[in-house]
Amino acid sequence: MTEFWLISAPGEKTCQQTWDKLMVATTRTNNLSTNNKFNIPDLKVGTLDVLVGLSDELAKLDSFVESVVKKVAQYMADVLEDSRDKVQENLLANGVDLITYITRFQWDMAKYPIKQSLKNISEIISKQVTQIDNDLKARASAYNNLKGNLQNLERKNAGSLLTRSLADIVKKEDFVLDSEYLITLLVVVPKTNYADWQKTYETLAEMVVPRSTNLLFEDQDSGLFSVTLFRKAIDDFRHKAREQKFIVRDFQYNEEEMKADKEEMTRLSTDKKKQFVRPRLSNHQIIPLRVFVESVLRYGLPVNFQAMLLQPNKKNMKKLREVLYDLYKHLDSSAAAIIDSAVDIPGLNLSQQEYYPYVYYKIDCNLLDFK
Question: Where are the bilayer-spanning segments (predicted)?
Answer without folding.
Answer: none
